[in-house]
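Subject: design request, 341 residues
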C-alpha cells in the first residue's frame, strides 16, 4: 500500500510555526513523529544561503536527535508575521539581532563514557547473529522476512508474517549482531526499529542482490560488497536506523531490557500495519540457553486477501531512497526540509 502523506507539517501541534529567540546557543530535541515522511533538515539564512555546516540532517520516522545551533553566527532578520510570504517547510526562527552574552561552549567530547562498539575489539566475542531481509513481493508490497542461514552468506526465508513461529531467540544480557539486508531493486528506504534495545551501527555496505523471492532464498552467496560511510549521527546509541535498497546494515546491542517476546519492525506505520513486523524472544539469563524448536519449522502462512496495487507500483518506480537536495529560496531564518514523497 502507499503510505499516507499529509499536506502540512506540524511542529508541537502547530502548522508551520515560528520561534522567537536570541543570538545565542539553543538545544533542540527532535523527534520525527510522522507516520512515513523522512525529513532532510537544513538551515537557510536571510540571504537564502544554506548553512549546512550548522544543520544538515536526515531524520526518519521514530528517529530522535539532540541538535545544538549557535544563532549568534547568523544575521537572521526579524520577520513580521503580518507580511505573509512563502511558508517555511518546518519552522521559522525569528532571532533578535542584539548581541547576548552566552558563556556556553561545545565540549571537545560530548560524552566521557561513550564507547564505540567495533568487531574484534569492543564487541564481545560471544555474540549471536540475526539476519532479516527487506524486500518487495510480486505485487510490489514491502515485506520483512526472518532469514535462516543455510551456508556461507546463503539464506532461506524462515518467517514471513507476525503469526509465523518465532525464529529469532536471544538470551537476556547477551550481545547480538543484527544484519538487515534490503534486497529490493528499488522501492523505499525503511527505518528499522527494535523494541526495548539500544544498538550501535557496525557498518553499512552495498552488495549485489542474488535473492530469489519466488524460491524464498538466495540464488547464490551474497557478494559484491562495497563499504559505505556511516553518518556521524549514526555512530552513537540508537534504536532506529535507515536501511536503503541494496544495502546491508549491521547493528549490535546487548539484549538486557527485559524477557519475553518483543517486536522489531519497519517504523513506517503503514508498512508495519501491513505486516512488516515480527517478534524476537528473549529468555531469562538464569534459564540458560533458549530452548529452540526441534526439527524443521512448519511452513509459514501466506498473506491472503491483498490485491495488487497499481498505484504502489508506480510509486515504487518513481521513488528515491534518498531525499533530493532541498531547493533554496525560502525566507530567511527557516529550518527547511524537502521530504521524500
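Subject: RE: design request

Done. Sequence follows.
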Amino acid at each position: 500500500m502507499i503510505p499516507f502523506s499529509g499536506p502540512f507539517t506540524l511542529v508541537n501541534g502547530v502548522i508551520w510555526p515560528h520561534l522567537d529567540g536570541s543570538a545565542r546557543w539553543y538545544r533542540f530535541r527532535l523527534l520525527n513523529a510522522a507516520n512515513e515522511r523522512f525529513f532532510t533538515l537544513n538551515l537557510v539564512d536571510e540571504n537564502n544561503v544554506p548553512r549546512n555546516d550548522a544543520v544538515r540532517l536526515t531524520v526518519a520516522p521514530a528517529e530522535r536527535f539532540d541538535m545544538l545551533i549557535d544563532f549568534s553566527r547568523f544575521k537572521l532578520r526579524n520577520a513580521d508575521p503580518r507580511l505573509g510570504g512563502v511558508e517555511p517547510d518546518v519552522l521559522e526562527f525569528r532571532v533578535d539581532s542584539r548581541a547576548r552574552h552566552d558563556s556556553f561552549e561545545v565540549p571537545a567530547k560530548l560524552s566521557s563514557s561513550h564507547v564505540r562498539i567495533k568487531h574484534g575489539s569492543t564487541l564481545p566475542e560471544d555474540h549471536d547473529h540475526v539476519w532479516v531481509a527487506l524486500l518487495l513481493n510480486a505485487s510490489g508490497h514491502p515485506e520483512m522476512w526472518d532469514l535462516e542461514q543455510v551456508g556461507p552468506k546463503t539464506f532461506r526465508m524462515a518467517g514471513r508474517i507476525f503469526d509465523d513461529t518465532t525464529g529469532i531467540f536471544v538470551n537476556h544480557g547477551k550481545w547480538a549482531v543484527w544484519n538487515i539486508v534490503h534486497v529490493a531493486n528499488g522501492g523505499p528506504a525503511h527505518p528499522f526499529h527494535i523494541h526495548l534495545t539500544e544498538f550501535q551501527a557496525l557498518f553499512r555496505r552495498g552488495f549485489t542482490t542474488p535473492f530469489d523471492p519466488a524460491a524464498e532464498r538466495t540464488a547464490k552467496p551474497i557478494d559484491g560488497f562495497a563499504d559505505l560511510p556511516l553518518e556521524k549521527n549514526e555512530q552513537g546509541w540508537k534504536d532506529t536506523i535507515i536501511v536503503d535498497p541494496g544495502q546491508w546494515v549491521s547493528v549490535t546491542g546487548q539484549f538486557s531490557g527485559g524477557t519475553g517476546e518483543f517486536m522489531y519492525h519497519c517504523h513506517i506505520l503503514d508498512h508495519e500495519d501491513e505486516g512488516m513486523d515480527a517478534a524476537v524472544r528473549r529468555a531469562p539469563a538464569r534459564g540458560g540457553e533458549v530452548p529452540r524448536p526441534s526439527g524443521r519449522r512448519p511452513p509459514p502462512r501466506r498473506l491472503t486477501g491483498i490485491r495488487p496495487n497499481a498505484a504502489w507500483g508506480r510509486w515504487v518506480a518513481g521513488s528515491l531512497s534518498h531525499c533530493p537536495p532541498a531547493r533554496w529560496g525560502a525566507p530567511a531564518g527557516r529550518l527547511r526540509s524537502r521530504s521524500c514523497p
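The chain has two domains: 10-99+322-337, 127-289.
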